[in-house]
Amino acid sequence: MKRWVIPFEVDGGGRFLLSRKGFVPAYIRAYEAGALKEKVEEALALLSPQCRVCPRYCKGIDRGADKTGVCRIGRYAWVASAFPHFGEEDVLRGWNGSGTIFFSGCNLRCVFCQNWDISQQRRGQECSPRDLARLMVALQEMGCHNINLVTPEHVVPQVVEALPLAVEMGLRLPLVYNTSSYDSPESLRVLDGLVDIYMPDFKFWDREYARTYLLAPDYPEAARHSIAEMHRQVGVLHVDENGLALRGVLVRHLVMPGMLEDTAQILRWLASLSPDTYVNVMEQYHPAWKAATDPRFASINRPVTGQEMATAYRLAREAGLWRLDTRWRRVWVRFARRLPLEISLGPEG
Ligand code: SF4
Questions:
Q1: Ligand 1 pocket residue status of 56, Cβ below 6 Å
Q2: pTM for the structure as a whole
Q3: Between 129-141 and 156-168, two packed helices, what is the crossing angle to 10 degrees?
Q4: Are 73 and 184 in contact (CB under 8 A)?
Q5: Quick check: CB of 82 below 6 Å from ligand 1?
Q6: pLDDT digits (tens, 9 = 90+) for 248-286
Q7: Residue 71: CB within 6 Å of ligand 1?
């Protein structure tokens, strides 16, 4: 067993420690209690007669009948790639990587999206529930520490539908729900008791920013509701003896150029939820897609400065937040082998 010097902000000197030995993922407990079948029915009911999977509530779109709305995904999920991810936070990537499944399509329209070919042009491959279950189990067999569902907001029913199959194939890893926070209350109700680790991104506080840059003016309210609900379900982040996330909320906030007042509001609100909220204040923003070419978005056509990042960290501490994510684990970062999506297309596929 590998041992690491775990930073105080990660395990709180033992306060945020959960024993790996006694840990059973929530969806396994639901399966063993016979509750998972009901969850699948509840989840699939969100697709028809009108989709209620996200706050867009696309009018007249029956995804059970394979119709598509804003997210451009119908009855079955599409996957762009699946692989052990070494770029995630140390509590997720560990030393073998976070078992990432990138879903195609998206319910937001971020003008600065770095993966616009996947999110907006739906690059990827349609996957049946059995396909998805096989991908999860294959990532577990590669040694990944968790199953990291990236951009899953619009495919919650499809993920839940895959879970009983994955359990029967031997899946035992915690699920990471890696979301933009534009989730519907109905979806989060379905996920209650299935997800152990929520990783919401809180993008904008201001409605006008949300309207301009995400095409979703109601995003700030939706995000606040979603993150508060996630916190109610699983609490603040807890890790095991090796500093690997087991349960709780890990919030991401991408600092945007010239928007520190927005950052301050978000950080203050997160601290009001709990000063022990674990937050990754991210500096990775760089202009992509429309932000890099369209003059309407000229004000965000630059990276954030070192000064802006220093201010963002200061704002976090002034708000009372102290569990701020850093890189602390020295690992050999491998160029991850992508799983061929055809892995899923076996005889029973
Ligand atoms: S999940 Fe897709 S179809 Fe459903 S409401 Fe959201 S954007 Fe519309």
A1: yes
A2: 0.95
A3: 60
A4: no
A5: no
A6: 999 999 999 999 999 999 999 999 999 999 999 999 999
A7: yes
Q: Which amino acid is at 100?
A: T
What's the half-sphere exposure (Cβ side, CA atoms, 13 Å) at 215?
A: 13
Q: How confident is the model at residue 334 (pLDDT cuts 50, 70, 90)?
A: low
Q: So what's the pLDDT on residue 331?
A: 83
Identity (one letter) of the amino acid at 238? H
Q: Choose the CATH number for 8-325 among 1.20.1090.10, 1.20.120.1200, 3.40.50.2300, 3.20.20.70.
A: 3.20.20.70
Quick one: average pLDDT of 114-124? 90
Residue with tokens 């009855």: 75
Pocket of ligand 1 contains residue 256 by CB under 6 Å: no
Determine the distance separating the centroid of ligand 1 and the alpha carbon of 57, expressed in angstroms: 6
Task: Note the pLDDT of residue 330.
Answer: 86
Atom of ligand 1 nearest to the CA of 51: 4
Q: Alpha carbon of 123 to those of 81, 133, 214: distances in Å? A: 10, 20, 20
Residue ranges per structural domain of the chain: 8-325
30 Cβ below 6 A of ligand 1 = no
Does 51 contact ligand 1 (Cβ within 6 A)?
Answer: yes
- Nearest atom (ligand 1) to Cα of 61: 3
Mean pLDDT for all residues in the chain: 95
